[in-house]
Amino acid sequence: MTSINSNADSRGGSVPPWLWFWLILYFLSIPGQIRFYKPIIEDLFSLNDLFGVVNVPGLLPSFVLLIGVLLIFFPTLRASYLERRFQLVEPDQNSSALIEMKAFLQQHVPGIHIKTNMLRTDQLAFVYPLGYRNTGIALFGGLFRLWHSDRKTAEAVLLHEAAHCRHGDVLIVGAGSFFEALVKKFIILYLLLCFPPLLWSIASESISVFQSGIPFAHKLQQFFIIILPGSFLQLLGLLGLLTSIFVLPIIAVWSAEFNADRFVINQQKSSTNLLSALDKISPTFSIFSWIIFRLTHPPIKMRQWAAKTRLSGFLLILLLFPAAYFANLIALIIRALSGYLLIYNLDITFSKLANNIAIYFAAIAPKWCAMAVLFLLWPFLSVYWEQYFGGSREAQNLEIYTVYIVSALIVGLPALLWL
Q1: Binning pLDDT at 50, 70 and 90, where does residue 58 land?
Q2: Which residues pair with 129 in a beta bridge?
Q3: Domain ranges of the chain
Q4: What are the residue ranges of helices labelled H in 269-345?
Q5: Distance between CA atoms of residues 304 and 250, nearest Å
Q6: Phi, psi dihedrals of residue 17, rounded to the nearest 5°
Q7: Alpha-carbon torsion 196, 35, 49, 54, what sign?
Q8: What's the CA gap between 169 and 179, in Å, rounded?
Q9: What percent of the chain has pLDDT over 90?
Q10: Is this structure's pTM higher than 0.90?
């Protein structure tokens, strides 16, 4: 086995399917979510209209996420939508480029169904589910051009898409996935779902204050000292709530993207063509545009770094999803602080926070133990996983098993202390 600090090539190995891991945990959490949100739903339909409206922002994101998750299990609807939207048709079987692409794809995803739109040159390719285990790939005119001008880069694009099929990602994320669209646009969801009800609340409270019989100076004081700061803390708390809901699936999707990039490198025995593909086909996004429109794809510079990295870098990629639980904790702390500061003094606030943090670590300890076990088993399970979803089986590669052992120790030992 290779040392974790070795400068040897880190090709081989893959990231565990954190998307499916998160999805299973999400379904297991649904009974607890129902118990938590039941009083909020009851208040929503109670006689106290204002109180119900104020609680809408806390309820809707989880409800919309549930819809997004449930729609995962209707792949034929997604396929029908994509084929109509992109005007995908059966390809011209006499095209030499198509014959070459088909032969190339069959090596990695046997039985994949190809449809094309030669008129669209602004697109390259994407995979989409035709059923639970049947996959289609859309090939566009832009890819055919790239195939003729830079075949190796075009192959890297196809390998990346094939990887999503082999790893089982295509059923959950990708083109036409309402789940991914929802996760990607959660900041927009925050603006749409949180601001209107909160503005309604501020307006109602302000009208009540200014219609009261207290002196005008006291009205202003109440507005600027109580209503506005309270509303800001509510907005901050709602941002923390939405972040805590979406940060884990976002990082799970990131892991799937890194995994697909890694498959390209493993197959081509080099990162050169992947880096070329990232340089040529990835549009430049500002930080703001990336947050709003591309949040489910890691920043290009991060993907380029991951493509060049050695074993220590692969270790960080493996630990990316477990580390997301700390980001989740920060979001929950922000959520809790926004509420505590409205009610308690600082001593009680920090005491409650410390207690909640201890409870949080105890709650995630079993999940981290499960991750540690998955790290140890994944090099053996991955070949069967890819065979199930992709239809072909790669040979086992245990040369970098040390990385998985280190990952299991990093995740498992703290989890045992938290239990």
Answers
A1: low
A2: 135
A3: 18-308
A4: 272-281, 287-293, 300-308, 311-318, 320-343
A5: 19
A6: -80, 75
A7: negative
A8: 12
A9: 46
A10: no
